[in-house]
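Need tokens for this chain, all 128 residues.
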Amino acid sequence: MRLLEKYADHAYALLRIVAGALFFFHGAQKILGAFGAARPPFASQLWFAGIIELAGGLAIMLGLGTRVAAFIASGEMAVAYFQVHWKFQLTDKFFPIVNQGELAMLYCFLFLYIALKGPGPWSLAKRN
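Here are the structure tokens for all 128 residues:
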């Protein structure tokens, strides 16, 4: 619908901000123990994931270092999908609806898109 096209850049900015904020909250759970979550052992794989989520989510949300942060976050979510959800099993567990990996897969491709598109409007970056 052409009527909505003029809002596409602003809708993208909202998508980037909300996705970054939600990812930040995942990191806050792991690293800060926010929202009643248990904190993983220091320097464990889960701890490093929390650092990526906390710092990367903030960078994506603010639009600072967006491409790099989103690319790293996308990679983390790919690892999460294959290592945690699918577990490299040659069964029907490959499908996200079966292994509960929908969120990891969605974040993976959303952050890949953000890495390719850049910060867009409403970012703290000096240029897009």
